């Protein structure tokens, strides 16, 4: 099995399990501020997921000077990860939603 490779910048860390890759992206890479809504999310998969769950393809093209190939690659990554793992469980394990309730209560 080829494994899961991190493709953030020049990082090429490879993990046998997608959950380990997502943990790596959350802990070893910075955060990404969405160019449409300014939401800050972990770099990598979670930034891709945020964008395509919250915004349109047209928003992506405009905000990131992207084309249809850029969109397809990211949609494929999102689908592959979601097919391989329960993303909600990974978010919970990585405590990514901590503070979200606090921010909503403020």
Number of domains: 1
Radius of gyration: 14 Å
Structural class: mainly alpha
Quick one: biggest sheet?
2 strands, antiparallel
Keywords:
about 110 residues, mainly alpha, two-stranded antiparallel sheet, about 55% helix, globular
Give an overview in words.
Helix 2 (45-54) crosses helix 4 (68-84). The chain is globular. Helix content is 56%, strand content 9%. It has helices spanning 18-28, 45-54, 57-64, 68-84, 87-93, 100-105; strands spanning 4-5, 14-15, 31-33, 40-42. The chain is mainly alpha-helical. The chain has one domain.
Present the secondary structure layout.
Blueprint: E1 4-5, E2 14-15, H1 18-28, E3 31-33, E4 40-42, H2 45-54, H3 57-64, H4 68-84, H5 87-93, H6 100-105
Antiparallel strand pairs: 1-2, 3-4
Helix pairs in contact: 2-4
Structure summary:
56% of the residues lie in helices and 9% in strands. It has 106 residues and is mostly helical. The strands form 2 sheets. A two-stranded antiparallel sheet has the order 1-2. Strands 3-4 form a two-stranded antiparallel sheet.
